[in-house]
Design brief:
This protein is of the alpha/beta class and 186 residues long. Helices cover 41% and strands 12% of the residues. It is built from seven helices and five strands. The chain has a five-stranded mixed beta sheet with strand order 3-2-4-1-5.
């Protein structure tokens, strides 16, 4: 079976990234630096043969995808499977606030317990399964081609773990920078 080449990109920076505030599925837009990062990612991909661009529907990702689409001549398509992890009660709060208010939940989060979720949020297993289904479906549409996926840190983490067969609870040993370009074969 032919592989699909994935260019996976995390959205550009937001003010909440700078503040270490958990965004989750709240719709927070790009800040000025994030808009610049999106344009830089687009320039880096200008000569790439790209068949399609898929993105989370959240504006920080979709605006990053639009910047890329404007340069490569494609309209991004929103895909809910590429949304950030739902962090429930943690959304809108800083790390310091979460640690102070929910120390036991913070420990479980830091320990990467695959079946644990913050109240009204998703588990790591649920995110991994959602990302796997979305990626498999999109890759199947584009065998032998190259596509762009624009998403979020949690989605990038799940993609990397799926591609490298790393366990969900293993500590992260890689960086997930804003607007970083990652290449995977699927």
């Amino acid at each position: 079976m032919e592989t699909t080449r994935l260019i996976a990109i995390r959205h550009g920076e937001t003010a909440w990234n700078v503040d270490t505030r958990i965004q989750g599925q709240l719709d927070i837009g790009l800040n000025e630096r994030g808009q610049w990062q999106a344009r830089q990612a687009a320039r880096a991909l200008a000569e790439e043969p790209i068949a399609a661009i898929y993105s989370s529907d959240l504006s920080r990702a979709f605006d990053t995808a639009r910047a890329i689409g404007a340069v490569v001549g494609l309209e991004p398509e929103p895909h809910l499977g590429l949304r950030e992890r739902a962090f429930g009660m943690f959304e809108g709060r800083t790390w310091a606030e979460i640690e102070a208010q929910w120390p036991e939940d913070t420990r479980r989060w830091r320990d990467r317990e695959p079946g644990w979720a913050p109240t009204h949020g998703e588990t790591l297993e649920q995110v991994r399964d959602r990302v796997a289904l979305a990626t498999e479906a999109l890759a199947a549409r584009h065998r032998g081609e190259q596509i762009v996926l624009v998403a979020h840190g949690g989605v990038m983490d799940a993609l990397y773990r799926l591609a490298t067969q790393q366990p969900m609870q293993a500590p992260r040993s890689w960086s997930l920078g804003n607007a970083a370009i990652n290449r995977l074969l699927w």
